[in-house]
Amino acid sequence: MSKLRLKIGIISLSFMSMSALVVTNAYSAIIADFPNEPIAKIQMIGTIPSLGSLITTLFVGILAMKCPKKILALFGILLTAIGGLVPIFFHSSINLLLAFALILGIGIGFMNTLSPMLLSEYFEGEERAGLMGIGTAITSLGSVVMMLGGGLLGASNWQNTYYIFLITILIFLLLLVNLPMDKIPKQTVTDKKNQSTSAPIDVLKSMSKLIFVIAGLSFFMSFIYTIYPSNLSILINHKEIGGTSTTGLVNAIGTVGGFIAGFSLKYINRVTKDKTLALGFLSLALTFLISRFSSTVLTMSIGAILSGFAMAMVMATIPYYISLKARPFEIAIAMSVFQFLNSLGGIFSPIILSWLTINPGEQAFLFGGIACVILSLIVLVTNIGKRALNQAPLDKDSLSQVQS
């Protein structure tokens, strides 16, 4: 199989990453159709997919050690199609919509976890890092296409919003044709009793502690980044520089920034080298601080562009660093740990902010900016980037081959 086809197959997994947000376009119409349902319950249609993705990360790494990743990827897009398309025909209750939203999230969880696994399996070095950046760009592109397309389709009838998930048919075909039937790694870790084992708990114990440190950064990135879209409209309204349409414009500009940064990451890495992660957190800090003290749509838009760059630099670099530190048989579990902590950060973000009694809007943005500056300094002082790029994985002496 040509490298181009392989790249198309793997990168297409990223297209649906943000698709769970499509239904948020139809909130007002759904609320009107279900006047007796609590608004908070209706809003869960857009948030419960995160729970589904979180659940998926707990077992997809284990499945990837026992089953070809192509089969898991096809299963993931199939679940996404079910969760996204069936509501076209069955939408008589909010409970039904919530059930399908959960299925949708589980499917998305499969694809989000498998994408960095496959890139780590088939590509090396700068090419792998560049493709992980392109993956974040395709996520941004998919978000624009899904949100815009879903909004247009559901303009007259909110149920029609779900027709945008017909795109899953194209993604399924791309995966079917362009992903090879990969082989399951046959390496196992040797425990203290000199017995060969591939149990997930033993694989976790064998992994470099640096992997957990790097994966932990994804929790903080997700936790802090969630503050931005959750508080942007509040901040814009408070500053009296616009309303819903202005928020949508600023978000769209930020998405374009992520798209450009994702495709340029290979070249950005050549300049920033082992400082990419720290500069990514610094870029997000500037996003928060510029937006916090901004008084015009133009400066808000500059902050949004920097948020796109931050997301591409951090969320592509973290799985890349993990892939460098993990041995072949550890990749599946390591990427599951990364995606689990990433999902967990987004879920806990509003809970922790509430616990810290941080008010929405300006105070939340100031907190996000300060937190990112601290994270950037920690990454620089601890030399995480240099350690990830220079420190070799554990010696092969600790591995044993399983006989075919």
TrEMBL record:
Gene3D superfamilies: MFS general substrate transporter like domains. Residues 5-387 form the Major facilitator superfamily (MFS) profile domain. It is found in: Cell membrane. It holds the Pfam family MFS_1. InterPro entries: MFS, MFS_dom, MFS_trans_sf, MFS_Transporters, Sugar_transporter_CS. It comes from Enterococcus innesii. The chain crosses the membrane at residues 44-64, 71-90, 96-119, 131-155, 161-179, 210-228, 248-265, 277-294, 300-322, 334-358, 364-384. It is a multi-pass membrane protein. This is Major facilitator superfamily transporter. Keywords: Cell membrane, Membrane, Transmembrane, Transmembrane helix, Transport.
